[in-house]
C-alpha cells in the first residue's frame, strides 16, 4: 500500500503510479557505473529512492539514497562502489513506508555470506509469511515485503540456489527479482510473469533489466525475456536456467503497455510506442467523433493520441504541455492550491485549442480529479468542445501486484457509470477502450498459450489468490 505522501501527491496528479525498476550486470569492470546508467533509464518506474550494490567477488559495497538517481548518488558516492557484478533499483512505494530503510537493494549478512535483493512487484502473502517468520524468531529491519524473501533464503539452511528455489515456492504475487551473492547473480520471475524482466548480453557479461530501454543506454544487446516461473543463475560457470514452478500462465500487467513502460522499450517482442499507437487507432475505431484536433495528455498518452489522429484523419497537435521540473514541494492542502498545482505541471496551448472541437486522449482515469481539471483547462483556453477518449478500459478494481490502487474507494469507475464520470469531469463525451479492443491492439491475444494479460483492475479476476478482505475470482 502506498504511504500518505504518495496519496497526497496522487490527489494532485491523478495517475496510476509506477512500481519499481531493477537492473543488474554480471562480469563487467564498470558494473556499478553501468548500473547507475541502467537505473537512470528506468527512472520513470520509481522516483522515491535509488540504490546500487556491487560485489568484487569477496565483499559488497553499496549506497542507497532517497529521491531521483541523480539526487541519491554523487560522483564520490558512486566511486566508492566497485566490483564486476552489481544490481540496482529505483523504487516507488507500494508496500512499506517511504524511508531510507526500505530503499533497495536490501543487503544482508547470513550464514553463507552476503545477500543483496532488488524486487519489482508486490507479494500478496507477505504479511502471512512475515508473521510466520516472526513467530519463528526472525527480526525484520524494514516494512518492505522484499525483506520476507531475504529471511526465507537465510533461514532455509540450503546453498543459495536451492534456498532461492524453495523460497520462491513459498511466496505469491508479482516479482521480477534480482539476487546477488559474492559470486553469483540470480534472476527470477513469478509464475504469472506479471512484471517484465529481460536478459541481455554485454561483452563477456550479462545484463538484466525491467525494460529493454536500459539495454540501449549501456550498449547491451537483447537476448530474450525471462519466462514466468524461471530462475536464471549466472556465475563463473556461465549462465543456466531452470524452472522453480511448473504451473505457469503469463498474465503480464496490461498497464505496462498502456502506461508504465517507456515508449522505446520492447516487451515480449512488442514495441511499447507501436502498441500505444494501435491502442489509439482502436479507440478511434470504437469511438469516432466529429472534431478538429487531437491532443494527448503528456507523456504516456502521446503515442495513443498520434494513433487516434492518424486513424481519424485529424491533425495531432501539442495542445497540452508538461512542465518537467515541478517537484512535490509546492503541494498545498486546500483545493485552490491543488488546482494551481495542476496548472504548474500542465498547461494548455491556447492557439492550438481555441475555437476547436478537441479530442483529448488519456491512458486512464483513476479518481477523475485531474481529468476534470484538464478538461476545464482546455475550455478556459477556448476549446469549443472537449471529447475525452481513454486508451484503456475503466479501472474498477484495486491492484495488489505493485500498483498503488489498493481499495475500490480510490477508483471513480468502481461505483460510477461512464455517463456519471463524463458529468464529473465535465467532458462533452467520454469513451473507454473495450478490453477486447485493448488486447487486439496490443497484439498479445489471451487465447495463445502463455501470452495472456492481467485484466484484474478491469474485470476483478486476479491471476493469483488474494490475501485481502475483498471479493474476487482467480483467473484460470
Give a nutshell description of this structure.
Helix content is 30%, strand content 25%. It is of the alpha+beta class and 476 residues long.
Written overview of the protein:
- Helix 6 (146-156) packs across helix 7 and helix 10 (272-286) packs across helix 11 (302-312).
- The chain has a 7-stranded antiparallel β-sheet. A 6-stranded antiparallel β-sheet has the order 5-6-7-8-12-13, covered by helices on one side.
- It is α+β, with helices and mostly antiparallel strands and 476 residues long.
- The protein folds into 2 domains: 4-248, 4-Layer Sandwich (Glutamine Phosphoribosylpyrophosphate, subunit 1, domain 1), CATH 3.60.20.10; 270-442, Rossmann fold (3-Layer(aba) Sandwich), CATH 3.40.50.
- The protein is 30% helix and 25% strand.
Number of strands: 25
How large a portion of the residues is in β-strands, by DSSP E?
15-25%
Output the structural class.
Answer: alpha+beta
Helix content: 25-40%
Rounded mean pLDDT score: 88
Radius of gyration: 22 Å
In whole angstroms, the N-to-C terminal distance is: 26 Å
Q: What's the CATH class of the largest domain, please?
A: Alpha Beta
Unreliable runs? 1-13, 328-335, 469-476
Could you name the CATH topology of the largest domain? Glutamine Phosphoribosylpyrophosphate, subunit 1, domain 1
Instruction: Order the strands across the largest sheet as they lie in space.
Output: 3-2-4-1-10-9-11
Kindly report the name of the CATH homologous superfamily of the largest domain.
Answer: Aminohydrolase, N-terminal nucleophile (Ntn) domain
Helix count, DSSP H or I runs of 4 or more residues: 17
Number of domains: 2
**Shape designation:** elongated
Q: Which sheet architecture does the biggest sheet show?
A: 7 strands, antiparallel
Amino acid at each position: 500500500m502506498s504511504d500518505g505522501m504518495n496519496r497526497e501527491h496522487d490527489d494532485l496528479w491523478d495517475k496510476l503510479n509506477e512500481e519499481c525498476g531493477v537492473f543488474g550486470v554480471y562480469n563487467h569492470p564498470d558494473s556499478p557505473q553501468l548500473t547507475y546508467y541502467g537505473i537512470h533509464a528506468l527512472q520513470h518506474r520509481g522516483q522515491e529512492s535509488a540504490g546500487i550494490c556491487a560485489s568484487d567477488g569477496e565483499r559488497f559495497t553499496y549506497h542507497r539514497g532517497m529521491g531521483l538517481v541523480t539526487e541519491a548518488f554523487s560522483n564520490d558516492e558512486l566511486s566508492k562502489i566497485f566490483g564486476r557484478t552489481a544490481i540496482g533499483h529505483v523504487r516507488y512505494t507500494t508496500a512499506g513506508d517511504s524511508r531510507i530503510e526500505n530503499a533497495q537493494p536490501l543487503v544482508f549478512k547470513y550464514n553463507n555470506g552476503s545477500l543483496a535483493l532488488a524486487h519489482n512487484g508486490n507479494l500478496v502473502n507477505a504479511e502471512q509469511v512475515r508473521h510466520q517468520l516472526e513467530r519463528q524468531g526472525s527480526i525484520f529491519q524494514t516494512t518492505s515485503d522484499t525483506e520476507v524473501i531475504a529471511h526465507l533464503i537465510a533461514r532455509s539452511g540450503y546453498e543459495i540456489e536451492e534456498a532461492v528455489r524453495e523460497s520462491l515456492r513459498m511466496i505469491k504475487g508479482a516479482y521480477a527479482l534480482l539476487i546477488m551473492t559474492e559470486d553469483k547473480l540470480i534472476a527470477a520471475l513469478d509464475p504469472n510473469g506479471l512484471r517484465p524482466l529481460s536478459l541481455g548480453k554485454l561483452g563477456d557479461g550479462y545484463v538484466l533489466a525491467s525494460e529493454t530501454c536500459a539495454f540501449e543506454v549501456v550498449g547491451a544487446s537483447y537476448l530474450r525475456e525471462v519466462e514466468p516461473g524461471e530462475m536464471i543463475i549466472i556465475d563463473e560457470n556461465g549462465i543456466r536456467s531452470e524452472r522453480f514452478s511448473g504451473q505457469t500462465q503469463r498474465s503480464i500487467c496490461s498497464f505496462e503497455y498502456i502506461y508504465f513502460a517507456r515508449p522505446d522499450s520492447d516487451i515480449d517482442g512488442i514495441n511499447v510506442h507501436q502498441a500505444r499507437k494501435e491502442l489509439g487507432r482502436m479507440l478511434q475505431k470504437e469511438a469516432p467523433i466529429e472534431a478538429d484536433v487531437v491532443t494527448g495528455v503528456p507523456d504516456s498518452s502521446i503515442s495513443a493520441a498520434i494513433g487516434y489522429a492518424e486513424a481519424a484523419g485529424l491533425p495531432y497537435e501539442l495542445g497540452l504541455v508538461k512542465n518537467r521540473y515541478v517537484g512535490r514541494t509546492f503541494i498545498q492542502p486546500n483545493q485552490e492550491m491543488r488546482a494551481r498545482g495542476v496548472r504548474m505541471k500542465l498547461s494548455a496551448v491556447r492557439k492550438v485549442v481555441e475555437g476547436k472541437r478537441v479530442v483529448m486522449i488519456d491512458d486512464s482515469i483513476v479518481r477523475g480529479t485531474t481529468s476534470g481539471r484538464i478538461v476545464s483547462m482546455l475550455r478556459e483556453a477556448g476549446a469549443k468542445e472537449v471529447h475525452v477518449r481513454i486508451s484503456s478500459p475503466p479501472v474498477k478494481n484495486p491492484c495488489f501486484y505493485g500498483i498503488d490502487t489498493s481499495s475500490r474507494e480510490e477508483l471513480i469507475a468502481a461505483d460510477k457509470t461512464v455517463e456519471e464520470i463524463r458529468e464529473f469531469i465535465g467532458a462533452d463525451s467520454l469513451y473507454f477502450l473495450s478490453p477486447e479492443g485493448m488486447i487486439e491492439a496490443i497484439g498479445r491475444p489471451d487465447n495463445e498459450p502463455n501470452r495472456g494479460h492481467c485484466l484484474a483492475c478491469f474485470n476483478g479476476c486476479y491471476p493469483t489468490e488474494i490475501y485481502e478482505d475483498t471479493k474476487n475470482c482467480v483467473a484460470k
